[in-house]
Amino acid sequence: MPTPQPADAASTFPPPAVVEQRDGLDRAPHETARGVDLWRFVKKLQTGRTLSEDEWTALIEGRTPDLADRLFAQARAARDEAYGRAVYLRGLIELTNFCKNDCLYCGIRKSNRQARRYRMSVDEVLACCTQGYAQGLRTFVLQGGEDPWFAQDKIVAMVRSIRRQHPDCAITLSLGEWPHDAYAAFRAAGADRFLLRHETADDGHYAMLHPTSMSPDRRKTCLFDLRRLGYQVGSGFMVGSPGQTARHLARDLAFLKELNPHMIGIGPFVPHRHTAFRDEPAGSADLTLFLIGCLRLMLPRALIPATTALNSVDAQGRMRGLAAGANVLMPNLTPPQYRGSYDLYNGKATSGLEGVENIARLRRQLEEAGYQVPLARGDSAVAVERA
Ligand code: SF4
């Protein structure tokens, strides 16, 4: 039986924004939703678990604070039914900030000559896992740019070492696009999960955010390969990225419905000072929260983090994210000497409750808010495909 819910932090904490935020979307006048009963769409989502592209667009464009509060209440109930009051913690290890790619929004893109580059040794990674294990973490997320130095055999060896050292833990990789055989080799070595955000499901919008060497079809192929290989797969997108419209977001939601991932990570776009998007406003925390609520109703069994990016634009983002339907947090296990260099966007939160050194405080805060923090891998309730 679900325990009583805490006050709806998503609505009771006004967001003290630390960066300028894009308040809303690039709206086309003919796409506004005035006069439409949007609550009807929320109810439809709750029962049918999907909406048409037009309905999604209308819901996103016409959202109001009151509608958001009612959506969050439904989203919390759906989350509690699937997972109870558990909030799962994952230890994030930012392995390397070298990247061969040049995504236009990214602070560690290869053409940013001002980035201080680093890559961790396997021994350093294992030491992070040991530290995280002692703090009660049972999932390690190895994240990095697409660094050619970390060739397939190096990653296989690293995954094997972690698997040997921590047989009871989940190993999650977030290391970009690879051929099918490489994904298969990582899986055989002991990797359980893979995170690969699609970022935007609209081809034209994808082309605005990425160099021509990158392809949205390739990204989607990777995601479906990962699913077929038996990974628990995570995907997701940025909210408020330059040029994004409600229609684009509707396509993101439709794509996620089709993929049916085990994990979904979304966060507001935040500009980086050494990219072409340096003067663009950040995405809205409120819209990100609204979409977390929508995702929870659409895919109630997915694991959904309250992301660092959300917490970076809104000091209460972590608790507001949970109150909107999220159920995962990712404390940072990266050694302090590297953490500041994994500089994806301006003002990325790396200290305070984001850091593993404060995990006891984080647990206390969660428990005081009525959540449980199990000492467990926290596997997804979405069924894994057979390889
Ligand atoms: S978003 Fe990822 S793939 Fe793109 S440049 Fe940044 S680290 Fe590399």
Description of the molecule:
The structure is a single chain. The protein is an alpha/beta fold. It has one domain (69-368): Aldolase class I (TIM Barrel), CATH 3.20.20.70. 40% of the residues lie in helices and 9% in strands. The strands form 3 sheets. It has a 6-stranded parallel beta sheet, covered by helices on one side. It has a two-stranded parallel ribbon with strand order 1-10. The longest helix has 19 residues, at 65-83. Residues 99, 101, 103, 106, 108-109, 145-146, 176 line the site of iron/sulfur cluster.
Q: What are its keywords?
A:
387 residues; alpha/beta; TIM Barrel; 6-stranded parallel sheet; two-stranded parallel ribbon; 15 helices; 10 strands; globular; disordered N terminus; binds iron/sulfur cluster
CATH superfamily: Aldolase class I
Which compounds are bound in this model?
iron/sulfur cluster
CATH architecture: Alpha-Beta Barrel
Helix content: 40-55%
pLDDT below 50 for ≥5 consecutive residues: which ranges?
1-19, 23-33
Quote the distance from N terminus to C terminus. 35 Å
The Rg value, from CA coordinates, equals 19 Å
Q: Look at the helices and sheets and give the structural class.
A: alpha/beta
The major pleated sheet works out as: 6 strands, parallel
DSSP strand content = 5-15%
The CATH topology annotation reads as TIM Barrel
Using DSSP, what is the number of strands? 10
Helical region count?
15
The CATH top-level class label: Alpha Beta
What best-fitting shape do the alpha-carbon axes yield? globular
**What integer is the average pLDDT?**
90
How many distinct domains? 1
SSE run: HHHHEEHEHEHEHHEEHEEHHHEHH
Cofactor: [4Fe-4S] cluster
Protein name: [FeFe] hydrogenase H-cluster radical SAM maturase HydE
Pfam family, one: Radical_SAM
Keywords: 4Fe-4S, Iron, Iron-sulfur, Metal-binding, S-adenosyl-L-methionine
